[in-house]
């Protein structure tokens, strides 16, 4: 079986991100027979940066989303909340 697949995505527009994310999810869905105890985890790492992977933290047959905030994004959120 080896290491479960992971796809890294960079996009400059929302529609480009949607297209690439959908294609990556479909690609990994076709591989789930090889990794029957893993679901799909989509993680946003920052503006226009994503990863899509088969994860044992996600139940088989499900797709979960996660956001990994950077320190800069977290500071901007706090700044907006203080106003």
Can you describe this structure?
With 83 residues, the chain is an alpha+beta fold. It has one domain. 34% of the residues lie in helices and 30% in strands. It contains 2 helices and 4 strands; from the N terminus they run E-H-E-E-E-H. Strands 1-3-2-4 form a 4-stranded mixed beta sheet, with helices on one face. A hairpin with a 2-residue loop joins strand 2 and strand 3 (49-55). The longest helix is centred in the N-terminal third of the chain and has 16 residues, at 14-29.
Task: Give the biggest beta sheet.
Answer: 4 strands, mixed
Radius of gyration: 15 Å
Helix content: 25-40%
The H/E string reads EHEEEH
Structural topology:
Layout: E1 6-10, H1 14-29, E2 39-46, E3 49-55, E4 63-67, H2 71-82
């Amino acid at each position: 079986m080896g290491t479960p697949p992971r796809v890294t995505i960079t996009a400059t527009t929302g529609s480009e991100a949607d297209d690439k994310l959908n294609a990556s999810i479909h690609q990994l869905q076709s591989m789930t027979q090889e990794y029957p105890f893993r679901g799909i985890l989509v993680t946003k790492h920052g503006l226009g940066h994503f990863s899509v992977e088969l994860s044992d933290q996600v139940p088989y047959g499900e797709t979960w989303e996660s956001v990994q905030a950077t320190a800069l994004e977290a500071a901007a959120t706090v700044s907006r909340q203080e106003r």
